[in-house]
Specification:
The structure holds two protein chains of two kinds. Chain A has eight helices and no strands. Chain A is mostly helical. Chain A has one domain (about 5-250). Chain A is globular and about 65 Å long. The chains are: A mainly alpha, B mainly alpha.
């Protein structure tokens, strides 16, 4: 089905919203604290424009290839953004608290296995093996990101870490974005040619637009200044973490 | 497996995932909105004098270290309910330590990191107690260590409390009495 004027408008609005968010990140210098997320948003802008050009002037076959390649690259960037949030929240002194890294990686590993199992169960009535595989991988990517969010929230709660304003805004906006995208992808893979799918796709784009607007607004606002810890105190805290871990290993407390 | 069953499993999995995300996020949001007074008001009251006896027995070993019986330790900490209250208080105490960074950033940062380690020991000990309370052969080793873990939890809680009170005594003497009163 050919896209309507509304679809083109939403497409353009997404590009503009991403440009606005990128501008906020650069102008307000949030890119210093969130370099990976800034790259992720820049990537969204470039990919959206490139896909539009390929869609308008290229062969449909090329559009499909470009789209799926961009999805895989996006997944890698999303993983990097999750790691960036983890680093900001759980390493305020530049070092991991006892067991925090182990807990996050273990939980993440279990999450990947659960995501793989659920994706393997997915058997959409796809036209080709390629489409089937893409649907499964796309669903897997959405599940992994959602599960990493949960593991991150649980690990930070267990270790008593708080979220500052900007990182909380990123978590909130991006969670909405990822969850809605995952549900929409799942429904699309099963109901590929149903009449309500264009509506579903528009709902997805509108939620993403709201998430971007919320994040842009929050990143524009200042948060209470973070004071730098002097190097000697930082060194003391880092040696404290190391010493406690060594002592605990020695006495065998698990 | 039929297609319908596969879809049901996936839908249940996705629903669980999404509801967990929403609940965790809502809890985090609520936690961020609490003021200093809200935090102090949410602290549970515990029998501190008796808890001190259990913690001191663990932290300051003296002659006659087996005077406290396992049942006695369990009763003093208030059983499983008491341990859960300690975990809740530990979360609040970490938030209160983070508040203190406004008045004495350096000391509060270091004390918060120390308290974080205590909190991990406390939660780990409570988790092992929970496993010990389950029946079954696989849980045997947790059942044997139940009094030790209970005492470990009490000691970690007591250390956290002492660290927090000392921090407030130094950096905010106005709020110290309210906090000391709430942590009785």
């Amino acid at each position: 089905m050919a896209p309507s004027v509304l679809d083109y408008a939403l497409w353009a609005a997404t590009i503009l919203a991403n440009v606005a968010l990128l501008a906020v990140l650069l102008v307000r210098r949030r890119c210093r604290e969130f370099p990976v997320f800034t790259v992720f948003i820049a990537y969204q802008v470039v990919v959206s424009v490139a896909l539009y050009i390929v869609f308008r002037y290229g062969h449909p076959h090329w559009y499909s290839r470009c789209y799926w390649t961009s999805i895989y690259l996006e997944f890698l960037l999303e993983m990097a953004v999750v790691w960036e949030i983890v680093r900001i929240v759980m390493q305020p002194t530049g070092t991991w608290a006892r067991d925090a890294k182990k807990m996050f990686l273990l939980g993440g590993g279990i999450g990947v296995i659960v995501a793989a199992a659920l994706s393997w169960l997915l058997s959409p009535p796809a036209l080709t093996v390629f489409d089937h595989l893409n649907a499964q991988i796309n669903f897997f990517a959405g599940l992994v990101i959602c599960e990493l969010f949960i593991v991150m929230l649980l690990t930070s709660k267990w270790h008593g870490y708080g979220f500052r304003n900007h990182v909380f805004a990123l978590l909130t906006g991006w969670t909405g974005w990822v969850v809605v995208a995952m549900i929409a992808d799942f429904l699309e893979s099963y109901e590929g040619n149903k009449a309500y799918l264009p509506i579903l796709d528009r709902v997805r784009v509108i939620v993403i637009l709201l998430a971007i607007a919320y994040m842009a607004f929050q990143f524009w606002l200042e948060e209470p200044a973070r004071r730098d810890i002097p190097p000697e105190v930082l060194k003391y805290v880092q040696s404290l973490h190391g010493r406690i871990k060594k002592d605990i290993d020695k006495i065998g407390v698990t | 497996m039929t297609v319908i069953l596969q879809v049901v499993v996936i839908v249940v999995g996705v629903c669980l995932l999404v509801s967990t995300i929403v609940l965790s996020w809502a809890k985090l949001r609520k936690q961020r909105q609490r003021s200093w007074h809200d935090l102090v008001a949410d602290l549970y009251s515990l029998e501190l004098d008796e808890l001190h006896v259990v913690a001191s027995d663990y932290l300051n070993p003296i002659c006659g270290q087996i005077t406290l019986e396992a049942d006695e330790i369990w009763e003093i900490v208030g059983g499983y309910e008491g341990l859960k209250k300690m975990c809740e208080n530990a979360t609040i105490m970490l938030d209160l330590a983070a508040h203190a960074q406004r008045w004495n950033y350096l000391e509060a940062s270091v004390v918060t990191e120390r308290m974080r380690h205590d909190a991990v020991i406390l939660r780990g000990a409570v988790l092992r107690v929970e496993l010990g309370l389950l029946s079954g052969r696989m849980m045997k080793r947790f059942q044997v260590a139940l009094p030790i873990r209970t005492q470990e939890a009490a000691a970690a809680y007591f250390l956290m409390r002492q660290r927090l009170l000392s921090l407030y005594e130094c950096c905010n003497s106005d709020l110290y009495p309210s906090l000391a009163n709430a942590l009785q």
